[in-house]
Design goal:
Helices cover about 45% and strands about 10% of the residues. The protein has helices at about 5-40, 70-80, 105-110, and strands at about 50-55, 60-65, 90, 100. The strands form two sheets. The chain has a two-stranded antiparallel ribbon with strand order 1-4. Strands 2-3 form a two-stranded antiparallel ribbon. The chain is flat and about 60 Å long. The termini are far apart.
Length: about 110
């Protein structure tokens, strides 16, 4: 790595900082929203909605059947062409296909 300029080092540093900020953004958002809910006297998890989106199906109620449930190509394939995929969706077993689960913190407060 000969002849690395200060601009290249600065670019690498800024790129690394942006990458780390992108990775940390959901955690920071969850922390801020939870603290705002507590300060407003609401449930920390659901914000007095009494339900939380299912973490397995992300609120859709359906998951892809098969051993590997994640693939960027499979997710983008319907948008790229008219061909049908052989991946089938089944009802989520975590939320019984509803897309949400009841808040455990709210059920404790009753």
């Amino acid at each position: 790595m000969e002849n690395i300029t200060a601009s290249e080092i600065a670019g690498l540093g800024v790129g690394t900082l942006l990458f780390c900020a992108t990775i940390a953004a959901p955690k920071v958002d969850a922390f801020i929203s939870a603290s705002q809910r507590v300060s407003l006297g609401m449930c920390k998890k659901c914000g007095d909605m009494k339900v939380i989106a299912c973490s397995r199906c992300k609120g859709a109620g359906l998951v892809k059947s098969g051993a590997l449930n994640f693939s960027l190509v499979d997710d983008l394939f319907p948008f790229l062409g008219d061909q049908k995929t052989n991946v089938q969706s089944i009802s989520c077993s975590n939320c019984q296909g509803r897309g949400h689960i009841y808040c455990s913190d709210c059920s404790k407060r009753k």
